[in-house]
Design a protein that fits this description.
With 207 residues, the chain is mainly α. Helix 3 packs across helix 6 and helix 5 crosses helix 6. It is 50% helix and 6% strand. The chain is built from seven helices and three strands. The protein has a three-stranded parallel sheet, sandwiched between helices.
Length: 207
């Protein structure tokens, strides 16, 4: 009877251990099966990023492509940039912004394809502005002949002016000067503004 009792106690203990293992396994499985939106950034796996891209219809080609941005709050951008984003009312990133901005921040070449109104301008503008703000500001006259830090080419005057409008939303609060160089406007005025010094030139190929 004593042996039987001991065996029963041992079996009970063994059964408890087995149930604990099963429970841990179930919890781990449940943990792994969570949707990416329920996970913290550091918990994201390759599978999560793949599902993330599928959810936002992001298709990529190339090597060592960085992870997309899930939200402005997780972007790691300086507060002054985030404040402007909030002020202009951009609540969330568009698909092309989520993937193109991290690539731009690595100073890599990128071809981005997205429909009209999908936020392509901001997708290349934010990496550009972050880079420019890390450089010394061009001073009037003495250093203006060193030229702008960036030239943005657009196929039409209308598109160039749209890009200028978007650039000024962010550039002006940061003290970044933009000059648009397009046909239909005074060459003398544009030349004067260039001589005054600027960080960004937006232009059409003809002008």
């Amino acid at each position: 009877e004593l042996l039987e009792k001991r065996r029963t106690e041992a079996e009970k203990e063994q059964e408890k251990m087995r149930l604990k293992k099963v429970k841990r396994k179930e919890e781990k499985q449940k943990w792994d099966d969570r949707h990416w939106s329920e996970k913290a950034l550091e918990e994201m796996t390759e599978r999560d990023w793949r599902i993330f891209r599928e959810d936002y219809n992001i298709t990529i080609k190339g090597g060592k492509i960085p992870d997309p941005i899930r939200s402005w709050q997780e972007s790691g951008f300086p507060k002054e940039i985030l404040d402007i984003i909030e002020k202009v009312g951009y609540k969330d990133l568009t698909p092309i912004q989520r993937q193109a901005i991290p690539i731009g921040l690595q100073n890599r070449d990128i071809i981005g394809v997205a429909e009209t109104g999908s936020g392509k301008t901001l997708a290349f503008l934010i990496p550009l502005l972050l880079w420019i703000t890390s450089l010394p500001k061009i001073e009037r006259l003495e250093e203006a002949d060193q030229g702008p830090y960036s030239i943005i080419l657009a196929p039409t005057r209308e598109l160039a002016q749209q890009i200028e409008e978007e650039t000024n939303k962010f550039g002006q609060p940061l003290g970044i000067r933009t000059v648009v160089v397009v046909g239909g406007l005074s060459r003398e005025e544009q030349g004067f503004r260039l001589r005054m010094g600027c960080e960004i030139v937006i232009a059409t190929p003809g002008r």
